[in-house]
Amino acid sequence: MDREHHEMSRSRLEEIIEEHCRRGRWALIPLIQEIQEENGYIDPAVIPVIAEKLKIFPSAVQGVISFYAQLYTEPRGRNTIRLCRGTACHVRGGKTILKLIKERLDIEEGETTADLEYTLETVACLGVCALAPSMMINQQVFGRMNPKKVGQILKRKGEDHEPA
Amino acid sequence: MQAVTLTINQQEVSGPPGQTILELARESGIAIPTLCHHALLSPLGGCRICIVENEANGALLASCVTAIAPGMIINTRSPRVQEHRRMILKMMLASHPDSCLVCDKGNRCELRQLAAELGIGLIELDRIPQAAVTEELNPFLVRDGSKCILCARCIRACQELVVVGALDYFGRGFKTKAATLFQAPLENSACTFCGTCVALCPTGALMEKEPLYRGSVGSAVESICPYCSCGCSISLEVKDNRVVRVMPGKDPGAPESLCVKGSYGCDFIHSPERLTVPLIREGEGFREASWKEALAVAAAALQGIRKDQGAESLAFFGSANCTNEENYLFQRFTRTVLRTNNLDNGSSLYYAAARRGFHEVVGFPTVTYPLGDLALADLIIVIGADPTASAPLVDYGIRRAVTAGGAKLIVIDPRETGLAFFAHRRLQPAVGTDLALLKAMAAVIIEENLTDREFIARKTENYRALLRSLEGFSLESAAAATGISAAQIVDAARLYATADKGAIVFGTGIMQQARGVEAVKALLNLALLTGHIWREGGGIWALLRECNAQGAGDMGMLPNFLPGRQDLQDPPARERFEARWRCTLPTAPGKGAAEMITAAEKGEIRGMIVAGENPAAAFPRSSRVKEALGGLDFLLVLDIFMTDTAGLADVILPAASFAEKEGAFTGLDGRVRQIRRAVDPPGECRPDWQIILELAAAMDHPLPFSSPGQIRKEIEDLIPFYRDEGSEVNLEGDAFWESGPDRKPPLKRFPAFTAIGDLLPPPAPNPDYPFILLAESTLFHAGSGSRSARSPRLSRFTPHYCFVKMNRADARRLALQSGDVVAIISENGRLTAVVSCDGALPEGVLSLPRSRIDHPLAALFSSPVEEDALSSALKKCYVRIERSGNDGSGAS
Asked: I need a labelling partner for B119 at 20 to 30 A (CA). Which of A27, B16, B102, B316 fits?
């Protein structure tokens, strides 16, 4: 609970746990989903608190969280970039776009920028091969990407993308 | 329920609905290979090696998780099944290192056995090597992730058998592994190093760390763990006359779980510090001597003292770590050769109150139900005990009863104990107020008519006295004294009284207090009021520290009891022994442990024998004890190590350890279990029984034994409840015990309720010593540490400093924080310790874990004035805290 970027208060956390804990161990997944929804991610420091309340071993709570790709234990950026790594995008230079984004944001795949603006992910195919190479930021699709567009899109800091 | 009939390998078989194919096949003598399956663990169906074919529909089924169904035509070894098994195993081997030649798991590896069985030569698949991430910072076990096949035996063992839950799967897909919380190294996790996962791991992924690479083990000897009194069966694996590995024993009743002391602490037997030759004092030091000379010197000295000063100036302090046969011999030797009743054993330091409480209430030392019965309880009260540290097997049993059996758990302790996580109710009475709490609970049970009236009427006595003692008792006063609300007390009392099978587990927190006998009797009152005392799954259990605390008392190694807990002052009992031993017995009441020391100080006791105990370190106010023992005319010590007490001796005789002799220990639940000789004693060491026989002969008074077997024969003749057949004494044609195949001590009368006196107001706080210091048991340390501190692995894991736990508010007030070095000062001594802040400890209470042998906690405690106070003097004392270095900033 001492982690600096853990925004959720202890009392709010306990409130959420209290709402769910009647269902015992079956409450675990809905409960951590709600924490993530409210907090953006699941601070590992809450694991022992949940475990104590639901009487599940902390290691088992961690096991469930680590199993699901949609559950995050690190803070997420306000915007999620999903870059397509499908075949069509690949032959049209998707790999270079990925390299440029990484350089520009100074993060690797799966990581989040220090200012919590962007999280970078790659996906197998966005299904818009006609626009290759393509990427999404939150719900907005950007097609026919090129190095210039990378700079333009990611430069506009402060301007919000369409919400996640 | 109708049996399900099906065909397995052309053979018609049937089993109960719900049974798995694997279980039924094995019952029918049909072998199916398995890897992730283990009889003690819940089925997982993870590895699929156990697949079988249902020829009725062509389905391939994991037999360990598939229930039998009518009409199945199962083939366990069709070519198709065998081909799939081979492929599954090849895929496991594809990501397994080829290091079998140098892997210490060697021929014990189940993966390798299975590959040989299925005839796998070439793996034929692209290899996916896993990074060899070995974890081996702790001294006990090594984890090598590259050899892991993800069968989850370790995970299930940790969660289901010892219920610690240090491990679970982490991640998924290729990246899956077994990990601790936050992927911390084991020593920073919940792991207690019990070794269960190592015992169950099918591959070399989990192995005991030391000593590695010693080749195949020659033989395994079944024995009993020499540490606490849980009586775990262990298997000593021997090579070249050395115990190289300890594994859980093959006892059918034993779960495959030991604790860190059983699994890794027995290496003290090969410590280079073992005494190996007899030693005779010469000036300030010792010189080596022959057995003949040492025994002659000892015999002459003891005979001389007896002749000049009388037999009452001799005493024998025996050991709760020696076998039944040895303790029996010690007391027979003391009574018939030395001719005095001045004898006692080390368990009196903590067990005296329970022994007396039980004796006076029910007429025998403890209620003895087998430990496994705890699993049947639906409510367990744990009071003044931390079995997680002091009796791990009991701890596992309680955890399993709660997690698997659905039992409710009430934990009553001023401190946060290891079971707190599992507790449904936690009561934290102020230190020393258990009596008020227990009395209040009894009052609630009677007030609300929750008693077992039929049981009380038919099988108990003295109920009226209890009722009278509760007249005018107010719940509010108990709430005020204990700091627990009246509602919580009522709630706990109702839970206990309305349970079907309520068990009580208590420890030194109850026994080691000023009114310990009454506290034990107050617990017995509760068990009698509700009738839980006699129900299987109910009952009441005292946690004892040493492996044979129960047996030493049963054998009569007590000043006023003959073997079989028979009263020394009871003429018919005495005559029985006199007839067998062909002599008259001394009748003068004997001196117990505390009185021996006081008498030695006064010069009334001039000669002492101490066998396998270390009073100079274990008794309160050690400096005084050392002076008393040092001032004796003659002190003979039998031990395996040069203890503080041995250092004061005139003659030291080197004894054999538990692994080097035969005999039996009696566990805390009354089960008598054999220990067996696994290796030869080092040097010239001899078993204690042999030494005492030789000493008796040297004193011209030979005793008629030449082996432990002969002594056991006499024990069985003279102690009815040590005979194999039951010895139930029926009371008015109605057996007291509901059931139980085990030995039960005879019951001479019905149990009686005890009127509990009023709680005295707490002593006025002494401004000089404002803190209450409590001694705390630790998992990695046993007794005074003679053995555990000489176990290379246990001692390496013990912190290199002694630390004291303190409430944060107290620490703030003294301007202290975790890591500060302080002096703890009592009226009797001082100790340097490192502060460790503990949020769960009440204000004004300090807790000091027993850990370092070079920081004898006992030095702080005040010396007892009377026998009954001996044990209470060792739990709690009043202290002040000063910042070390006397810089003036620390105040009390």
From this structure: B102
User: Which pLDDT value is given to residue B852?
Assistant: 64
What does DSSP assign to residue B799? -
Domains of chain B (ranges plus CATH)? Answer: 4-77 (3.10.20.740), 130-270 (3.30.70.20), 279-347+548-722 (3.40.50.740), 376-542 (3.40.228.10), 771-883 (2.40.40.20)
* Residues sharing a CB contact under 8 Å with residue B582, sequence separation 6 or more, in sequence order: none
> What is the sign of the dihedral through the CA atoms of B420, B422, B427 and B429?
negative
Name residue B567's amino acid.
D
Residue B61, C-beta contacts closer than 8 angstroms, at least 6 positions apart: B21, B51, B52, B53, B54, B74
Mean pLDDT, to the nearest integer, of A136-140?
90
H or E segment and range at residue B531? none
Q: Are residues B51 and B63 in contact, defined by beta-carbon separation less than 8 angstroms? A: yes
Give the strand order in the sheet containing B11-15.
B11-15, B4-8, B73-75, B51-54, B59-62
Measured between CB atoms, which of B165, B171, B179 is closest to A57?
A: B165
SS3 category, B863:
coil
Q: Where in chain A is the domain with CATH 3.40.30.10?
A: 79-155
Give CA–CA dist A68/A70, Å, rounded. 5
Size (chain A), residues: 164
Contact at 8 Å (CB) between B438 and B523?
Answer: yes
CB pairs under 8 A between A and B: 42
Cα distances (angstroms) measured from residue B151 to each of A2, B37, B255: 36, 8, 20
Asked if B159 and A60 come within 8 Å (Cβ–Cβ), the reply is yes
* CA separation for the pair B793, B12 (Å, rounded): 53
Q: How many CB atoms lie within 10 A of CB B584?
A: 11
Both structure tokens of B506: 């208590």
* Chain A interface test: which of B161, B177, B182 (most A C-beta within 10 Å): B182
Non-local CB neighbours of B357 within 8 Å, separated by 6+ positions:
B516, B517, B518, B519, B520, B521, B524
pLDDT digits (tens, 9 = 90+) for B341-378: 999 998 888 888 888 888 888 876 666 677 778 888 99
Can you give the pLDDT at residue B637?
96
pLDDT of residue B622: 81
Residue of A nearest to B179 (CA): A59
Give the whole-angstrom CA distance, residue B781 versus residue B764. Answer: 34
User: CATH fold of A79-155, please?
Assistant: Glutaredoxin (3.40.30)
Considering only CA atoms, which of B814, B820, B885 is closest in space to residue B844? B814
Residue B358 identity (one-letter amino acid) = F
Question: What is the per-residue pLDDT for B742?
Answer: 46
Q: Which of B44, B154, B168, B409 to mutate to test the interface with A (most CBs of A within 10 A)?
A: B168
* Angstroms from A72 CA to nearest CA on chain B: 12
Please name which of B600, B662, B609, B669 lies closest in space to residue B638, comparing C-alpha atoms: B609
CB distance B840 to B796 below 8 Å: no
Please spell the DSSP secondary structure of B297-350, one letter per residue. HHHHHHHHHHHHH-GGGEEEEE-TTS-HHHHHHHHHHIIIII----EEETTHHH
CA separation for the pair B649, B643 (Å, rounded) = 10
Cα angle vertex B780, ends B143, B852, to 5°? 130
Integer Cα distance of B875 and B350 in angstroms: 9
Beta partners for B345? B318
The ranges of chain B with pLDDT < 70 are 211-214, 251-255, 364-368, 724-748, 852-856, 863-873, 885-892
Q: Which CA distances in Å does B427 have to B395, B415, B489, B669?
A: 18, 10, 8, 26
The arithmetic mean of pLDDT across residues A97-111, rounded, is: 92
**SS3 for B35-84, per residue?**
CCCCCCCCCCCCCCCCEEEECCCCEEEECCCCECCCCCEEECCCHHHHHH
